[in-house]
Write a structure and sequence with these properties.
The protein has about 190 residues and is α+β, with helices and mostly antiparallel strands. It folds into 2 domains: about 130 residues, Aminotransferase class 4, branched-chain amino acid transferase, N-terminal domain (D-amino Acid Aminotransferase, Chain A, domain 1, 2-Layer Sandwich), CATH 3.30.470; about 35 residues. The chain is about 20% helix and about 30% strand. The strands form 2 sheets. Strands 2-1-6-5-3-4 form a 6-stranded antiparallel β-sheet. A 3-stranded antiparallel β-sheet has the order 7-8-9, with no helix packed on it. It is flat. About 20% of the residues are buried. It comes from Lactuca saligna. InterPro entries: Aminotrans_IV, Aminotransferase-like, BCAT-like_N, Class-IV_PLP-Dep_Aminotrnsfr.
């Protein structure tokens, strides 16, 4: 019965949505130790980020050929990595190399954003037993161009403090619909 149900179940193909920034369709994404085309950039289903949401991340902005507050972001990432006791984490130089290679290969030197993630590990099998964590951390560097064209044309930001974590509340308009977004202040 299960086999016949599996054969008869068809899932509709979801149409590919248009991207807010068309050039982001051709980006290369850093995963592990290589750059991959957007549609091929994936982590294993056995990665700890999939199994239990186990990762640290930073949002970095690129303005005028420079990564804004790079050292501060990396310091915070390494503090988080230590707090979560991630083993076999890449070095600061390895992470910087992944960032700069991603920037250069994508040709994005201004008005870009990198979501830099460090997952705990790709496991040998599913489960929470630490002995399954044999492969080491995975670096993910997802870079995309931003919709605005300069610092002066950023959406207006209003600052609020929530539980000792700072956020900017930002109203963004998409075809007349207003959406509230929360952005890590250190990535702006």
């Amino acid at each position: 019965m299960l086999k016949s149900h599996a054969r008869s179940t068809r899932f509709p193909k979801i149409p590919t949505p248009s991207l807010p920034v068309a050039t982001n369709e051709k980006i290369l994404v850093w995963v592990g130790d290589e750059l991959l085309p957007r549609d091929n950039a994936m982590v294993s289903v056995f990665d700890s980020v999939v199994q239990g949401g186990d990762s640290v991340w930073e949002g970095l902005r690129i303005y005028n050929g420079k990564v804004f507050k790079l050292e501060e972001h990396l310091n915070r990432m390494f503090d988080s990595e230590k707090a979560l006791a991630l083993n076999n984490a890449p070095t600061r130089d390895e992470i910087k190399e992944s960032i700069f290679k991603t920037l250069i290969r994508n040709g994005m030197f201004d008005n870009a954003h990198i979501r830099l993630s460090l997952t705990r590990v790709k496991k040998v099998t599913s489960g929470m037993i630490p002995g399954y964590n044999l492969y080491g951390c995975t670096i993910i560097g997802l870079m995309e161009g931003l919709m605005f064209t300069s610092l002066n044309s950023k959406p207006s930001l209003s600052h609020t403090l929530v539980s000792k974590i700072s956020y900017f509340g930002m109203a963004i308009s998409f075809g007349g619909n207003e959406t509230q977004a929360k952005v890590n202040t250190e990535s702006c």
